[in-house]
Amino acid sequence: AKSLGGDTWRFFAADMRPRASQTAHLETELRGALSRREFVLFYQPQIDLRSGKVVGAEALLRWQHPERGLLAPGSFLGLAEETGLILPINEWVLNEACRQGAVWEADGLGDLRIAVNMSPIQFRRQGVETLVKDALRSSGMRPTLLELELTEGILLGHDEHIVKQMHVLRSLGVTLSVDDFGTGYSSLSYLRSFPLHRLKIDRSFVQDLGSDPSALAIVRTIIDLGHILHLQVLAEGVETEPQLQLLRLEGCDEVQGYHFSGPIPADAFVAWVMQHGQ
Ligand code: C2E
Ligand code: CA
Ligand code: CA
Ligand code: CA
What's the confidence (pLDDT) of residue 219? Predict the structure, then answer.
């Protein structure tokens, strides 16, 4: 098991079986999790800095494990990617997020955008546009309310196939953002060649905003770059008021982070929106 993270180790710390057999066990459990409906989506609010209103939510995957409790993706995503199980899992995520989005729309919750994380494998192997079209059609969700978060890794190859799919998605009305911006092999040229809407500044830069002048310089540069290219810029991982103030000063458009709320279940998210205004 090469790319299993630290969480996986802790996850199995009490398990005395050999590592390979533990991995096999996790894989078996992971295979059954979809049919047993053990996956659930949590939602983290995204706030517009100018209006102070909630404009969207990022859908984040959780595994409600019958014995081990609620698991964050760090403990099983690596294996899901290695085994290809990420494909059916992410297909479920997409459908579930769209279903939820349509319900919230019908409930009059406002124009809440829902962002879904896309896996690199998914973008390469599956017909993403077909998946997305199907999810939108069967849910009835308004396409402009769906956002797909892509990593720099997906964009890096300048793959014709990927560019084509992105244009099809855009023509549907779906918006596209770059996740963890600044942490990949930032080839700036891809920003021009892809139909993007938003950059999400990685939380590692936001975290050091108050303490490290170079973090501030990087955040400022990303915001300026985004705006020059007519992209919206969202800062992730905002945890403190000083970080928020700096981001506001720098002209950042949107924020997301524990300072507002962590990822929470759908019903708690609705309550949060009601309380904090739309
Ligand atoms: P990400 O896309 O960068 O998601 C943001 C992560 O940062 C989430 O971790 C979130 O809980 C956490 N976070 C949010 N605000 C703060 C903050 O203020 N401070 C700190 N320290 N952390 C914050 P989570 O939910 O454990 O997800 C981890 C990663 O797993 C995600 O990183 C994403 O890459 C991946 N992931 C999550 N859901 C999915 C999914 O449905 N499909 C795929 N392919 N990947 C997913
Ligand atoms: Ca993300
Ligand atoms: Ca991110
Ligand atoms: Ca990430």
Answer: 97
Specify the residue for token string 């349509």.
102
Cα separation, 213 vs 233, whole angstroms: 20
Ligand 1, atom 34: closest residue by C-alpha: 117
Instruction: Confirm if 264 and 36 have CB atoms less than 8 A apart.
Output: no
Unique residue bearing structure tokens 């929470």: 264
The token pair that represents 186 in the structure block? 């930032």
How remote is the CA of residue 157 from the centroid of ligand 3, in Å?
20
Per-residue pLDDT at 134: 96
Q: How far apart are CA 234 and CA 54, in angstroms?
A: 13
265 CB within 6 A, ligand 1: no
Task: Specify the pairing of strand 69-71 against strand 54-65.
Answer: antiparallel
Helix axes 213-228, 241-249, angle to 10 degrees: 40
pLDDT of residue 17: 66
Indicate the SS3 state at residue 67: coil
The closest ligand to the CA of 150 turns out to be 2
Strands 113-117 and 198-201 turn out to be: unpaired
CB of 5 shorter than 6 A to ligand 1: no
Q: Sign of the CA dihedral 161, 130, 183, 3?
A: negative
Cβ 135 under 6 angstroms from ligand 1: no
**C-alpha distances out from residue 143 to 161, 165, 177, 201, 233, Å:** 22, 15, 15, 24, 21
> Which positions of the chain have pLDDT values less than 50?
1-10, 12
Torsion of CA 104, 40, 151, 162, to 10 degrees: -80
At 39, the amino acid letter reads F
What is the distance in angstroms between the CA of the first residue and the CA of the last residue of the chain?
44
Whole-number Å distance between alpha carbons of 243 and 263: 19
pLDDT at 251: 98
Please report the pLDDT score of residue 57 as a whole number: 98
